[in-house]
Amino acid sequence: MFASPARHLHLYLSASLLMLAVQARAADGEAIIQKGGANPAAMPCMSCHGADGKGMAAGGFPRLAGLPAAYIAKQLADFKAGRRENPLMQPIAQALDDAETAAVAMAYAALPKVQVKVMAGAPERPKEGSGAWLALRGAWDRNIPECTLCHGPAGVGVGDAFPPLAGQSAEYIEAQLRAWRASPARPAGRKGKALAAVPPTRRNDPNGLMQHIAADLSEAEIKAVAAYFAGLGESTEPFDASQHRLR
Fold first, then answer.
1. What backbone phi and psi angles, to 5 degrees, belong to 186?
2. Where do the annotations place heme c 1 binding (predicted)?
């Protein structure tokens, strides 16, 4: 019997995590976060992701604190290889060597995970078509699964492959959903020239799952589901490890 793609991904990430632990010994992740890497092009991570690693919503910079080390290292490798395009992150990723990448990933993973707000009382039935509906129920008539199917209850993340959505800003989630989508070609208008199709700038999802989902979401749906997860916010209560039991 052949292993499923998900199983292959799990084995790959598990092996990557062991490799990260070995490589990380050769570099100081916290120092790189605060001061940058040996190559001057590797700017301090905290400049964009904040001193606490919780990101900067206004600039669209994501939370990295508490994300799985294997996931962070994979994203840096994907930036370096061009599977994920970003004019700011690509040169930084390319300037980090393997040991520095591993150290940064391990340092961020060691920071507290997102603590989702606990809703009082029984949850209300979401309004059909709303961000909560898409997040919790999906749109199966268009083959769009609910976000929590992969990203876990309340979007707290599952394993090393599916990162938390709760705790990320609406701006960042929107930007990533658009990055997964290709822009279709447009014929010349009455006053303008034709525009060629633009491929997605993010192509590092397992089996093209996110590309399919993002392509089938409308702009209004992207905004709604991003607002839903951003609205979960981060609780000031002490961290509850039971929220992350699937990790």
1. -125, 135
2. 45, 48-49, 89
At CA 202, angle to CA 200 and CA 208, rounded to 5? 85
pLDDT tens for residues 93-131?
999 999 999 999 999 999 999 888 776 655 678 999 999
Q: For 8-161, where are the E strands, in sequence order?
A: none
Q: Is 48 annotated as a binding residue?
A: yes
Q: Residue 21 above 70 pLDDT?
A: no
d(Cα 204, Cα 50) in Å, to the nearest integer?
A: 25
pTM summary value: 0.83
For the stretch 171-204, pLDDT in tens is: 999 999 999 998 876 677 766 676 667 899 999 9
Q: Is 147 annotated as a binding residue?
A: yes
Helix, coil or strand: residue 90: helix
Residue 63, sorted as left (phi over 0), alpha (psi -120 to 50) or beta, turns out to be beta
43 assigned binding-site residue: no
CA distance 11 to 21: 16
Same domain membership, residue 142 and residue 104: no
Question: Is position 83 within any domain?
Answer: yes
Return the closest-CA partner of residue 63 out of 30, 111, 126, 13.
Answer: 111
**Is residue 151 domain-shared with residue 229, that is, in the same domain?**
yes
CB 180 within 8 A of CB 213: yes
Is position 46 annotated in a ligand binding site? no
Any idea what the CATH number is for the domain that residue 29 is in? 1.10.760.10
CA distance 11 to 84: 22
pLDDT in tens, 48-74: 999 999 999 999 999 999 999 999 999
